[in-house]
Amino acid sequence: TMEDHVYFAFSENVPEIGNGTQRNLYIFRVPDGTEPDKIIQTSLKQTTSKMTTKPTILLFGLPATHHSIPEALREKISTMLASLEGELNKEAPDLDFHFVPVQPEDSKEKLDEILSKFPKIDGYVIGNGVRSNMELTPFMERLIDGVRQVAPQAKVMFNTIPTDTIVAIRRWFPKPE
After folding, report:
1. Distance between CA atoms of 87 and 59, rounded to whole angstroms?
2. Which ranges of 14-136 does DSSP label H, i.e. alpha helix?
3. What confidence tens digit (pLDDT) does each residue in 40-74 have?
4. Pairing mode, if any, of strands 25-31 and 4-10?
5. pLDDT-derived band at 86, boundaries 50, 70, 90
6. Rounded distance, CA 52 to CA 50, Å?
7. How far apart are CA 37 and CA 121, in angstroms?
8. Among candidates 115, 117, 114, 97, which has minimal Cα distance to 165?
9. How far apart are CA 77 and CA 38, in angstroms?
10. 60 with 126: CB under 8 angstroms?
């Protein structure tokens, strides 16, 4: 006779479906003679993709130390970015934010590698340091195209300075009532 076996799996232990910040326990009944890893992996992916989660927002910008940023502005930008993280966590706990420093020197493969770390992208902000520098236009196009390849539904948002990032985001992702 065939026996069923019970397996337990945590979503954080399956790299394809999470970034390790959320821990969900799943229980599986697997028929004897079946490969449990394959069933568990497939079931976790299907279950997790159906779960309602916070919208994922990527915040793309140049590192404050990038050579295209004037030396006199670097400290101010670093301070503004640090306060932005606190503001976003306070003002938009309904959203999942990820700061993603990118550089024009990054290859397409590097951008693809960065984007592959996010199983879901609902929207992305491209910082003014990238947009306002005409020399970086080809880079901005590569960045937009890269996101559109993996998440064509993602909303693109633009801020003018780090402190108005939440305004740009709320245009597409309004605060829940």
Report:
1. 14
2. 36-50, 71-91, 108-115, 128-131
3. 555 555 444 445 489 999 999 888 888 888 899 88
4. antiparallel
5. confident
6. 7
7. 27
8. 97
9. 47
10. yes
